[in-house]
Design goal:
- This protein is of the alpha+beta class and about 900 residues long.
- Helix content is about 55%, strand content about 15%.
- It contains 30 helices and 23 strands.
- The strands form three sheets. It has a six-stranded mixed β-barrel.
- A hairpin with a 2-residue loop joins strand 2 and strand 3.
- Helix 9 packs parallel to helix 26.
- The two termini are about 25 Å apart.
Length: about 900
């Protein structure tokens, strides 16, 4: 009965405090739930994307002389197999062709054959460019080297046997050549081998007819592989579990084969890489989610602590009337139950609602159950811990005092805030100077892990900034100096001295409000800046892969540049620029060569300063434009060939006149780390005019296009006008973002961003407005006394507005500075997420303006709702 009466009294007289506590618990639970659900769903999405991006799950290569029947049985026993096909490989010494009265030759190559139905189950292995798919198919680079096309004849130089002639039916591209031609059985630490430059594809029966004799005389020059597609439906959705599942299945297969075959586990390798990205997602959860969750918990405790004086006085009255400590705690537990249960239910409900509204947040029972238990724990501890402490350690006489003498807290005497900030700077400097990796892949260990030491710097910085805010704001308020008076004078006028003196006696309460507002604004600012920078870099990453908003890719025989005028005239085209894509030999290494117009290439694509070493993008392009024979070389090539600036680099390029490779002199003028559409390792960038003059061809294989608004719409328009040219490939930036699949910057953070920023706004407004309103409610007796002694409403309002403007000024200044610093630190620490790293922070000015307006509005609402009214003065005067 007493418990029910107490609950009814609390709900009737302390509604704001209970409502604030419920809101704090609900924010904690909801934010923890949605971030946890995002983490789970992001991992599942990574797994699905990674699996879909693997054309061949397993490549099983029988040892020479082994029977394929027991190998096939072992496959069925070890895993759920969806499709298995045979692929035959044969090495050749080269190819020859007659073209334009000259004989074209190539170096060593390979001839392969697929069995029936292979391309139906593995359609990503071959892309048709021209001609027919029925018959002999020649790879694009081989066709360019031999200058042949459909209908032409190629001579195949077999090893140890006479050459044979075949007639070309079509020209194709091999998008997955690295995997298709990989050397099966190499140790994991071995460097990957480049695929052959020259490839021919025959029908299986033709291959057997031509290369069975070579297999008998030189069995080391031919091989057979079984390409396996597994059933993906049974794989665990979590990337770590999926990797473990696939790896164990492969190990089981290798044990069953007992040396009869070698296995290349492409799916396991891909999932192994995704584990690292999944850990990066966990890092994002820790960096972005935990500060917000911690802030919501702190807000909950701050709300319950706002009535500390009143709670101690209530406990004193109860104990005078005979209540035991157990009874006091029981009464506090009822209030805690109301806040904990109510907040947890609201938080879970909000999380489920977000999940139904967002396709990227599917509800997960275990996650919601764990979050619910956390919410209940937070609610009960927030109420019971201070109540237990006061009941045990505060005497009745001390509890009845309206004003308590407090000394400087220990952290201020120890200058803990300065110590934490200095330690944060040292840890951050150590991390930045040693080239750390926040996600580690220990040598020789088939696992990845997070370097949790990297969290020390931002955690110490966050705590140190919060304590520094308390120190500085407390010092300004308690000293009652010129700074305090200057801040409040606009709203106090002639009462400035009196109000500042009153505020200086309440520095502890006001500094807590300023600190809470600053933390909330800091969280909103850092989250918004990081997410904006992340989204901008995601686009840059996709644009780097694709080349531009839309890229039209052709071949040497069918260059996309021939359609430049038509593409530039499309309604959605903002700019269109041609780009050459040739191949050049650096020594014996065949590399991609990109010919550009340095003065115009920037109109169609973004070139970041991070793409180049030794200078910014503008400076490097100006240098290239001023040096007609200049060439920018990738870092790997510079290191491999020990090049120095100014060196003459003799590249062998194919001449359009005789279709032979001839040396062309270039001058090495700079290093390019990245370039649109270029591979990561070895490539070259030169002036298109010089390449055209030295090779006798001004054909541009690529066209880069900048969209006016929607790249997808521009891609549709380009594909429509190029429908008659099947050899031209149109790709937009959205497709590139999907193709880089499990890369973390390809993970769509749109839903998480919206939720995080929404919570940030709510917490910023709650921290400022709710803390201010609670302070006013706890001191309504003081305002009633002012009214009783003759204070006018305008004079009483000066006290209210002065507190509001003080919390606003301190919270916004400290919060914005801390938020920008935290965002900068997060971006620097998470450099591994970005490729390339961002040049500067992206500032979300609109969002920051919205946060600012809402915080100001919450303070205004709190002040207006607490304006004195003489109606209840008598009641408030009797209030304890």
């Amino acid at each position: 009965m007493i418990l029910l009466l107490w609950v009814r009294g609390i709900l009737a007289r302390r509604r704001l405090r209970v409502a604030g506590a419920i809101a704090g618990v609900a924010l904690t639970v909801a934010l923890l739930a949605v971030v946890g659900l995002f983490l789970v769903n992001a991992g599942n999405s990574m797994t699905a994307r990674a699996i879909s991006a693997v054309p061949i799950d397993w490549q099983v290569q029988p040892i020479s002389g082994s029977d394929t029947a027991p190998i096939r049985k072992a496959l069925d026993d070890a895993a759920r197999v969806k499709a298995v096909h045979q692929v035959h490989y044969a090495d050749v010494t080269g190819f020859e062709a007659q073209a334009g009265g000259t004989t074209q030759t190539t170096g060593p190559g390979q001839v392969i054959a697929f069995d029936d139905g292979y391309l139906n189950d593995f359609p990503a292995e071959v892309r048709q460019l021209s001609g027919s798919m029925d018959g002999v198919l020649v790879a694009q680079q081989t066709a360019a080297n031999l200058h042949v096309g459909p209908g032409d004849t190629i001579s195949v130089n077999r090893i140890g046997l006479p050459a044979v002639n075949v007639k070309v039916a079509g020209v194709i591209d091999l998008p997955d050549a690295d995997s298709l031609f990989q050397a099966v059985g190499l140790p994991p630490q071995a460097a990957p081998q480049a695929p052959p430059d020259n490839v021919l594809i025959l029908a299986r029966q033709d291959w057997r007819q031509l290369f069975d004799p070579q297999q008998k005389t030189r069995p080391d020059t031919t091989r057979l592989q079984l390409h396996v597609r597994l059933e993906h439906d049974g794989l665990p959705p979590d990337p770590v579990s999926a990797y473990t599942f696939v790896t164990r299945a492969r190990n089981n297969l290798e044990a069953r084969l007992a040396g009869q075959a070698l296995v290349a586990d492409n799916l396991g390798v891909r999932l192994g890489a995704v584990r690292e990205d999944a850990l990066y997602a966990s890092v994002l959860f820790l960096f972005l989610g935990l500060p917000g969750i911690a802030l919501a918990v702190v807000l909950t405790f701050a709300v319950t602590s706002s009535g500390a004086t009143r709670r101690r006085m209530e406990q004193a009255l109860l104990r005078i009337r005979g209540a035991t400590t157990r009874m006091v705690l029981s009464l506090s537990a009822t209030e805690a139950a109301a806040a904990a249960i109510g907040g947890t239910v609201l938080g879970i409900g909000a999380a489920v609602l977000f999940g139904t509204m967002s396709s990227s947040l599917e509800p997960n029972g275990p996650t919601l159950l764990l979050v619910g238990a956390t919410g209940l724990l937070v609610g009960f501890v927030a109420f019971l811990l201070p109540a237990w402490r006061d009941a045990r350690w505060v005497t009745v006489s001390a509890a009845r005092r309206a004003v308590l003498r407090t000394g400087k807290p220990l952290w201020r005497r120890l200058w803990l805030d300065v110590v934490l900030l200095v330690a944060a700077a040292l840890f951050f400097w150590q991390s930045a100077s040693t080239g750390y990796q926040i996600v580690l892949a220990p040598e020789g260990v088939a696992a990845t892990s997070v370097d949790y030491k990297a969290f020390i710097a931002p955690a110490l910085s966050w705590l140190g900034t919060a304590l520094l805010t308390l120190r500085l704001s407390g010092s300004v308020i308690s000293r009652n100096g010129q700074i305090l008076r200057a801040i409040i004078s606009p709203v106090c006028g002639p009462l400035t001295s009196l109000v500042s003196a009153a505020l200086s006696r309440q520095s502890e309460r006001l500094t807590a409000g300023i600190a809470m507002t600053a933390l909330a604004v800091s969280f909103a600012t850092s989250t918004a800046i990081f997410n904006t920078t992340y989204n901008a870099q995601s686009r840059i990453d996709a644009e780097l892969t694709n080349g531009s908003d839309v890229t039209v890719q052709g071949t040497s025989q069918k260059p996309a540049g021939e359609h430049l005028a038509v593409l530039a005239a499309l309604p959605e085209t903002a700019a269109a620029e041609p780009m050459q894509h040739r191949f050049a030999y650096v020594g014996a290494d065949l590399q991609d060569l990109y010919g550009i117009d340095p003065a115009r290439i920037g109109r169609a694509t973004h070139l970041a300063d991070a793409y180049f070493s030794g200078g910014g993008a503008a400076g490097m392009l100006d240098r290239l434009a001023a040096t007609p024979d200049g060439v920018l070389v990738s870092e790997e090539t510079v290191q491999d060939f020990q090049l120095q600036h100014g060196d003459t680099l003799n590249l062998r390029l194919m001449n359009a006149g005789d279709h032979q490779y001839h040396p062309v002199a270039f001058r090495f003028i700079g290093v390019a780390r990245e370039f649109p559409t270029a591979p990561r390792d070895s490539f070259l960038v030169a002036n298109a005019a010089y390449v055209a003059r030295m090779t006798g061809s001004d054909a541009s294989e690529y066209v880069l296009m900048r969209a006016r608004s929607d790249p997808t719409a521009l891609a549709r328009q380009a594909a429509s006008v190029l429908a008659s040219e099947p050899s031209l490939k149109v790709a937009d930036i959205g497709q590139a973002a999907h193709l880089i699949g499990s890369s973390l910057t390809a993970v769509d953070l749109g839903g998480l961003t919206t939720i995080e920023l929404g919570f940030s706004v709510v917490m910023a407004a709650a921290a400022a407005g709710l803390m201010l309103a609670l302070g006013f409610t706890e001191r309504r007796r003081n305002f009633a006394i002012l009214s009783a002694i003759g204070a006018k409403p305008r004079q009483q309002a000066a006290f209210l507005w002065s507190e509001g403007i003080l919390i606003l000024a301190g919270g916004l200044v400290f919060g914005l500075l801390s938020g920008v610093l935290t965002a900068w630190m997060l971006v620097k620490l998470l450099t591994g997420v970005f490729d390339p790293p961002p040049e500067t922070l992206s500032m979300p000015w609109t969002y920051l303006a919205v946060v600012l307006c809402l915080v100001i509005a919450s303070v205004i609402v709190a002040v207006l709702s607490a304006r004195p009214s003489s109606t209840h003065d008598a009641e408030y005067l009797r209030d304890i």
